[in-house]
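so i finally got all the pieces together for this one. its three components total, 784 residues if u count the protein bits. some of the lines might not be protein, just check the labels. i wanna see the whole assembly predicted at once instead of chain by chain like last time, that was a mess tbh
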Amino acid sequence: MTRVIVIDDEEDIRNVLKVVLERAGFEVDVAASADEGMNLLRDKKADVVITDIIMPGKDGVDAVYDIRMEFPKTRIIVISGGGNPNPSDYEPRAIKTSAYLASASAAGADVSLTKPFDREELVNAVRTLAERS
Amino acid sequence: MKPVLTLLLFVVLLLSIRAIPAEQEVVLVVAHNSPIVELSALDIRKVYLGVSVTVDGHSIRSYRLNNDQRLNQIFMQSVIAMSEKSYERRLLSLTLKYGRPRPTEVDSPVMLMEFLKRNPLGIGYMWKSDAEKDAEIRIVKVLWQSR
Amino acid sequence: MAVTLNSISSRMVLALLAIHAVLLPALFYGVLAIVKIGQEEAFVDHARNSARLIADTFAADKALGSEQETVRQLDNAVLGGRSTYAVLYTDERTYVSSLMDASEVRSFSEDFVFGDHDDDVYYLSVPLELENTVAALHLGFDESPTLTQIAGVQKTLTNIILVYFFVSLLLVALLSALLAKPIQQLRQDSREVASGNYSKHLLVSSRIHEIAELTRDLETMRSNLVGVNSKLQEEIAEREAAEAKQQSLEVRLRHAQRLESIGTLAGGIAHEFNNVLLPLLLYTELALEDLPEDGSTRENLEKVLKLGNRAKGLSQQILTFGRQAGDAEKLALDIAPVVEEALSLVRALIPATIEIRADIKHNIGTLLCDESQIQQLVVNLCSNAFRSLSVGGGDITVTVDEQHVTEDFVEKYPRLRVGKYVCLAVGDTGVGMDSATLNRIFDPFYTTREVGEGTGLGLSVVHGIVLKHDGEIVVWSKPGEGSVFRVFLPLAGQQSAGHSDDSD
């Protein structure tokens, strides 16, 4: 069974993704932050990691980078709100999300999805990546 | 300067005409001890014009009064028969050309009479009333009478 | 010509009048007096002399002759001596000239001064010393000729003085006009300059020293003023232009800022919105999955899903709008700091074992660009370069400099035009690419990477950005040696051969 770890600071998103992916037949664990996600990965290992890139605390981009470094075989999907991060939360390193996305790909993400995405879109992406690995 | 003086003289003359005294006669006078007894009009004229007229070999000296313009006018008209200006010119040329003494000018009849007493050969003229005041002065003749 | 008391001519005339008011009477009366005195003195002298001579003719005889003789002599006096009156008084009798009327005989007051007694006759009496008697000769001399002569002189003098006065008045008027004319001219010219015709030269029109000098000085002043004035005006114009420029820049900046803030706002809202929409839609989908094919619940939920998708559409529109609003303005920027900022990002992502050499020239010029897109371009190129490096490591070189595109180059790369370009070059010492690969690198999803090493989108995005900026990307690569990606972007102010894309 393909294991998926979902990292997102929004509880609702964590929950819904978990439900959707479990329904699709994946094993899902969730983490609320990049650090938590990393720990979880170390613990449980995963085939695919889905992470929000704009999160408080450790930057999503850093997370991608770290994951790539530590788990070169794990596939990474980055998801984003598409707009701009609220400047009051943290200081973004790039001005626009597009740049973030770019840096995410530079850091090693495989796929990037923009919220809100289809159930189908997500499931397909996971499946494709799972097959690749 | 001369025209101005002449102008001033003119003005003074005009003014003096206003004050016409009621004098009657102008007389020729000498000192009482003068050798001069009689002098013709011509001789008087000559003396006052600087021409030498002698008596006993001595020249007669002439004296003039300069305090009374009217007296002078009468004298000029009656004796000298010239204008004052012509007479002055004549006297000037006397001194300058011939070196002759001009008639001595005296301020007052009294002074004139004193001069005459000191110089018996001198002649002078004045109002008769003045001449009569001094006993040591002799009247030679009447030069002019008013009418 | 206005008449005032203060003009040159009126002052000169007044001065003339004042001087003459004093001088002319003095002159007149002075001259008149001199003439009068002279005439009168001559008359008196002559009268007295004549009287004397006439008297002497009688006295020479020593005695009077016959009455006839005496009268004849009296007649002679009247005829020759210019006396109008000749009467001889003796003690005995009175002799009267036959040329006289008997009624004219009278007693008179003797005159001693010309003009005495107001009778136009100068009377004098001369005493005669004859041998026996004393006689008195009375003579009267006509004063009228002398008086007439004096009056004549007076008249002539008056005429002369009047003529002189008017001539001098005329001369003064002429002189003052002569003087006033150049001054008037100067006044007129100055007034013209003062009223705004600064280019009117003040010309010297008089030989009078003071006026000429004044004119020259005023002219110098004028030309200086003109110079100063034009300089000032230039300065004002410059300042105004600068201000206008400043203002327009400010407006643009404010506009851009407003748009950007709207964009930011929109983006922020959309971001949160999307975070909400995702679970909303997904849950709805899940719910639908659990429901039977028919039923009102299904219908209702399908509606909810539809609405949710509408919301998604809206959110995307907002985002697009936000992006457009925020991104619509391509600003003219110096690309160097943008690249440097992107590089700092890159440096954070790439391990320290890889050296990134940067040679970025500042102040090449400004480029109309979207800052974030350029950053994305740099990041993508660098990440591509990084991925090209083999396990052993290598270098990445990033340069920014100015390039002049020649005609030959344009022939090869028709999207370019002859002119100045900014050249951003990213080079690596990686594996390189063969020509087959080179042909496809900008295709979307084309990747030579192993699975998991990239989306394959990076270079296509780069390509898109380059096109959006009216530029061109030129790749050199040699397998085993490395690659260099050169991005040419036109400097602001120049046009490109292709269409200028509307951004986003």
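The first strand of chain C starts at residue 83 and ends at 89.
Residues 496-504 of chain C have pLDDT under 50 and may be disordered.
anyway lmk what u think
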